[in-house]
Amino acid sequence: MSLLKGIAASNGIAIAKAYRLVEPDFSFEKKTIEDIAAEVERFKAALATTETELASIRDNAKVKLGADKAAIFEAHLLIISDPELINPIEDKIKIEQVNAEQALKETADMFIAMFEQMDNDYMKERAADIRDVTKRILSHLLGVEIVNPSTISEEVVIVAEDLTPSDTAQLNRQFVRGFTTDIGGRTSHSAIMARSLEIPAVVGTKDATAEIQNGDLIIIDGLKGEVHINPTSEVIAHYETEHQRYEAQKAEWAKLVNEKTISADGHHVELGANIGTPKDLEGVIENGGEAVGLYRTEFLYMGRDELPTEEEQFESYKAILEGMKEKAVVVRTLDIGGDKELPYLDLPEEMNPFLGFRAIRLCLEEKDLFRTQLRALLRASVFGNLKIMFPMIATLDEFREAKQVLEEEKEKLVNEGIPVADHIEVGIMVEIPATAVMAEQFAKEVDFFSIGTNDLIQYTMAADRMNERVSYLYQPYSPAILRLVKMVIDAAHKEGKWAGMCGEMAGDETAIPLLLGLGLDEFSMSATSILKARSQIVNLSKKDMEKLAEKALGMSTTQEVIDAVNHAVK
């Protein structure tokens, strides 16, 4: 028996035999080609087969995971039709008279190396996408079958160095009980998809493929981030009990689906969900969401080759507002840039796009794009309880300008005789430390705050949350972060406004008692986390948590805060 520790990427416990996703043999020899036209046609045939295959994977992903996750494969389909990649391959075949395999490898390796050397996570992910796509093309050139997870017909735990998006999308929940990988983090494609499928996952173990062989009995503890290899009968018995306990706990949480979220001493908070598409509403309703705390509208813009029309956007916003039946829906305006890019906008490359031309900065410069979205939102506002949120606001001038554009579009619609809701709350996402520090000034003009902790934490700690070497600095419970959160909440309450949170921290079991004590009004999280969070809050006293939060604000280290929460709550 041995134990590996990694990152708990998706909750749950799985016990099954290991199934290694092993790369097939892609070796080949460089050859000189005489019939160049035939070789080009052979390459084009491999491209066509790959396109058909990816389209099928995309369609399956839409059904199983939703359009936002399927957008990954739309991006893969764009890669195989990108002349910047395909033309150099064909040119190599024609000019250098090499076989298609060699031309593909040399060209792909050049692009992969270029992207991997960039100090930018989005570009590094593009390298992974190119590797995934070109491997698939190469498999068709060589007549080699890529291992297909969708063909698995017995209960297994997947073991891999990493899982590509196409691998993860093909996982069958009936047989794949969980997975573990050598690399990856909570925000990687595979981890996000695992949570959507509710498959337990532990990533970033470093040694899973080196330590685990096909057929080994594996226990995945997605709650603690542990992988047990060939465990003893005692450990198996323990985890079988833990699995039953976890499933029973989920059944208990389900009883709260129609309840409000009220603390033990009678204080109500709102639990909302973060969503990307109208399809996600089903999960919000099934899990008792009291609101949509964050609708990420960028998924409307991704996986396509042109901007969505006003009408397309209107229909999407209308569907969500009607689906929530007058419950609040906070819609974040377009947040593109950083790790999310739109190829058809042809934006310039930046040294540090996370701190660059993105989100509201892009929208205030590309006002036609912004106005189209705002018109669609305003038209949809009469179908439900719409709240509009501007992302990446750093200054009051930015907020005032964005709100002015909104008011101009509202006036135009009214003059056109198109109905618009009488009152729409307009707020901002607080994800820049300067904004948190200036919260008192912002609170006089905004209707609400929603704290985006994913970026707020990494900007405050000057540590990229995707960089494993500095991941120890991604500290949600740091007294520094808690003080910033308190500043925002206190500023909102002073002006009679509400403050929410839509980052990962809002659904974090250790953070929730602290946030309740700090006075957070709305917690927005993944839909599958809502019932667990509600179960926790209904057993907490807000007054007791206020005392806990006050102590935590005076502490010196993250570990002191964690210990204090564990002592007070567990």
How would you portray this structure in words?
By secondary structure, the protein is an alpha/beta fold. It has three domains: 125 residues, Phosphohistidine domain (Glucose Oxidase, domain 1); 107 residues, PtsI, HPr-binding domain (Enzyme I, Chain A, domain 2, Orthogonal Bundle); 315 residues, TIM Barrel (Alpha-Beta Barrel), CATH 3.20.20.60. 48% of the residues lie in helices and 15% in strands. It has 22 helices and 17 strands. An eight-stranded mixed sheet has the order 1-8-7-3-4-5-6-2. Strands 10-11-12-13-14-15-16-17 form an eight-stranded parallel β-barrel, surrounded by four helices. Helix 6 links the parallel strand 4 and strand 5. Helix 12 packs across helix 13. The longest helix is centred in the N-terminal third of the chain and has 30 residues. It is globular and about 80 Å long. The two termini are 30 Å apart. The model has no long low-confidence stretch (mean pLDDT 89).
Quick recap of the structure?
The protein is of the alpha/beta class and 570 residues long. Helix content is 48%, strand content 15%.
